[in-house]
């Protein structure tokens, strides 16, 4: 996440998408995101296909637009 914060300087809107793994749902982790004005996007409970869609979109963005 630190690398993302460093590279995102100057970007007005950031969305961080993750599944509901416990480390990403922790109070400390979400507070860091909120403090840096990063919107949180999470898959719905027991909806594993939502994460697959997000991963596919991220893959297309990286491959087609050379985004890391």
UniProtKB/TrEMBL annotation:
SUPFAM superfamilies, A to Z: Ribonuclease H-like
Domain Integrase catalytic per the UniProt entry, residue ranges: 1-68
Transmembrane segments: none
Origin superkingdom: Bacteria
Name of the molecule in the record: Transposase family protein
Originating species: Flavivirga algicola
């Amino acid at each position: 996440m630190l690398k993302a914060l460093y590279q995102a300087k100057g970007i007005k809107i950031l969305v961080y998408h993750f599944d509901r793994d416990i480390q990403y749902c922790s109070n400390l982790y979400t507070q860091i995101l909120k403090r840096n004005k990063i919107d949180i996007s999470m898959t719905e409970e027991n909806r594993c296909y939502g994460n697959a869609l997000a991963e596919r979109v991220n893959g297309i963005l990286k491959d087609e637009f050379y985004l890391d």
